[in-house]
From TrEMBL:
The keyword Hydrolase applies. Residues 83-289 form the Alpha/beta hydrolase fold-3 domain. PANTHER family: AB HYDROLASE SUPERFAMILY PROTEIN C4A8.06C (PTHR48081), ALPHA_BETA HYDROLASE FOLD-3 DOMAIN-CONTAINING PROTEIN-RELATED (PTHR48081:SF8). The active site is at residue 161. Belongs to the 'GDXG' lipolytic enzyme family. Transmembrane segments: none annotated. Pfam families: Abhydrolase_3. One of its GO terms (molecular function) is hydrolase activity. This is Acetyl esterase.
Length: 315
């Protein structure tokens, strides 16, 4: 039985149709970024005040990486839990402003320090450039833990959509010992399979926000060649094994072309007996956590993610 769309999600879709904007794939990446940036303030939830916000730069693999650091209300001055948040946007769009409210929510709800990197975007910087920046940020967090006032043993990673993809890949890299260990991975409607062959790509191909053609445009800007599609660092669902990865929270949306691959990834985690909290929002669309102005489930989902993270780390 199909669950009706959440009224707030329907409102967002109606606003998008009324705006009559051109699809991202009909223009250039810069045009897509400008359109996305212009639309974010009309959808985002409240930007809660936090204790401290600081912008810094760190050395990256090829160029400096801009980081925004949030210390939430109630976060201890030293030894705080920390969250590396990786923004979504199909590896092509998104920045430190587009997911600012989500980072604030996590910081306050978890009483933690959130670090968000402005990682390199495609197609100017194709795979694995953005992933390398995210990995470099995690290394910095672990190495500069005292300076940041965080506990290096309590760093988690989170991300939405393409950011969820990067977060899942970092968790696999951490399991392999390629980056510092993680205490949890919080995956919000993650992209896990660049083959884009799941049935949800057909069921929700258009009319629900993120379309199949737009997602193909994003992927084709991100990868260097077709061969990258089978690389688990692009498609973590294809990795040989998932045992030993950090405990996971996975949320999926019912009216989302990424629904099936997110559910499949959660199922593989469950079969491997990775500590797991699953949430499925059958009445929601892709990107709803960035639409808090209209969709109460946005903040509720961050609350659920924080509760799951705490259940993995009772300290």
């Amino acid at each position: 039985m199909t669950v009706p769309l959440d009224p707030g999600a329907q409102r967002v879709l109606d606003l998008g149709r009324a705006a009559a904007g051109v699809p991202f794939e009909a223009g250039t990446p810069d045009e897509a970024r400008a359109a996305y940036d212009a639309g974010c303030p009309t959808l985002q939830g409240d930007k809660e005040p936090v204790s401290v916000i600081k912008d810094i730069g760190i050395a990256g693999p090829e160029a400096p990486i801009a980081l925004r650091i949030y210390r939430g209300k109630g976060a201890p001055v030293s030894g705080a839990p920390a969250l590396l948040y990786l923004h979504g946007g199909g590896w092509v769009i998104g920045n430190l402003e587009s997911h600012d409210e989500i980072c604030r929510w996590f910081a306050n709800l978890a009483g933690c320090v959130v670090v968000c990197p402005d990682y390199r975007l495609a197609p100017e910087h194709r795979f694995p450039a953005g992933l390398q920046d995210c990995a470099a940020t995690l290394v910095h967090m672990a190495c500069a833990a005292v300076e940041l006032g965080i506990d290096a043993a309590r760093i988690a990673v989170a991300g939405d959509s393409a950011g969820g993809n990067l977060a899942a890949v970092l968790a696999l890299m951490a399991r392999n010992g390629d980056v510092p260990p993680l205490s949890a991975q919080l995956l919000i409607y993650p992209n896990t399979d660049a083959a884009q062959s799941a049935d949800s790509y057909r069921r929700f191909s258009e009319g629900y926000g993120l379309s199949t053609s737009t997602m193909k445009w994003f992927r084709n800007h991100y990868i260097r060649s077709e061969a990258d599609i089978a690389d688990w660092r692009v498609s973590p669902l294809t990795v040989d094994r998932l045992d030993g990865v950090a405990p996971a929270f996975v949320v999926t949306a019912g009216y989302d072309i990424l629904a099936d691959e997110g559910l499949a990834y959660a199922e593989r985690l469950a079969l491997t007996r990775v500590p797991l909290v699953r949430r499925h929002r059958p009445d929601q669309i892709h990107g709803f956590v960035s639409m808090g102005r209209h969709i109460p489930a946005a903040l509720e989902t961050v609350q659920e993610a924080v509760a799951a993270w705490r259940s993995f780390d009772p300290a």
